[in-house]
Amino acid sequence: QVQLVESGGGLEQPGGSLKLSCVASGTAAVYAMAWFRQAPGKEREFVAAINLGGSTTRYADAVKGRFTISRDNAKRTVFLQMDGLKPEDTAVYYCNGESVTGRPDLWGQGTQVTVSS
Length: 117
Description:
The protein has 117 residues and is mostly beta strands. The protein has strands at 4-7, 10-12, 18-24, 33-38, 45-50, 57-59, 67-72, 77-82, 91-97, 106-107, 111-115. The strands form two sheets. Strands 2, 4, 5, 6, 9, 10 and 11 form a seven-stranded mixed β-sheet that branches. The protein is globular and about 40 Å long. The N and C termini lie far apart (40 Å).
């Protein structure tokens, strides 16, 4: 059974940077991976996604040009580099992965990101 574990969240000032990591435990393959976020009182929303080979990425308009998703398959890790952080980026960030079932049914426990002065 694959488990996704996020890390790297924390408190950062507006304009600052944070880098999130998500490690997939186990040996089963994890194909496309993505980041989602959920702010208090709001629904979970898509942030960024990357294909297995890392050649194709996709971003929500709200983070385009500021966030960068990448992956290191040898380390079974996906990253989210977040630059130019804004208070509206405050949320719990969740890692998501496509399992061997072909469905994006793998979720991490989330890591809190707070952007505040």
